[in-house]
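seq:
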Amino acid sequence: MKRFILITLAVLLLAPSCCGGVKYANRAEAIAAQIHDPNSKYVVVICHRGDWRNCPENSIPAIESIIKMGADMMELDLKMTADSVLVLSHDADVRRCTNFDRVFKDQPGKSPKICDLTYAEIRELRLKRAHGITIDTLHMPTLREALQCCKDRICVNVDQGYEFYDQVLAISEELGVTDQLLIKSKRPIEVVAAHEAAHEHNMMYMPIVDIQRPAGKALLNSYLEQGVVPLAYEVCWHDSGDGTFAEVSDQIRRQGSKIWVNTIWASLCGGDGNDDDAAFKAKDPGMVYQQYLDAGVSMIQTDRPALLIPWLEKKGRHTLKY
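struct:
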């Protein structure tokens, strides 16, 4: 357990804030330094499945688009093919995001699950935009392809995929991007600590705590009670009426960790009126986003980076020097 804490402390010592005049080798390194710095006022913007409004979700163009926007982190999901290749997909079933039914129309009994398809079969498929139109030139990328695209330009959050920790780490080590990856889960402290102890070099890690559900409360309390200080907590809550988020955010800040909030869906950030869509409809997006800055939030996962990033820049909370 002590080792779990010491890893974080050691990185903090090696990664002072960019505001102090430190020169970083690349943009991703500068972003990672802000994540490691509990005192940084920089707000890290994470894009949910990339720019899925304009490109197929979890695709290379979706990554390229958010990099151009000035986002800090690409959130992606992983699945493994039948022949053990990690590919980017939120769904276990490829039907929603690809032209599977057209490609395999002569095989009505064919399974659309990624775990039942070989990588060669996945390569036959083409990705769809959010409105269901297939783009003939785009296929589902592998994790390797995505990391090669992101390398040194933007950090990466592996959302669905902790069960593939060893395989992800092997690829990230080969590409030299391990320090640019943040992986998360709802696993107990002991499980994560044991997993990290098996490797000399690990990705950043963040627990997910749903603070209004028993399991989430228990996981948060285990960190607080055992004095284990993660880089950040992903905090989820569905009802803002009982003051739970305010209480928890205060506890987390006193502990010295960062707070990650998802504004992608109201059900993850306190209900209607608190999410990206509410900010988009408001005259001023600050009518929604300001509450999170006031609560000490410094990592926001969004579906509307083109709205959030300019607002943060005007607030002086999204200027990165490297």
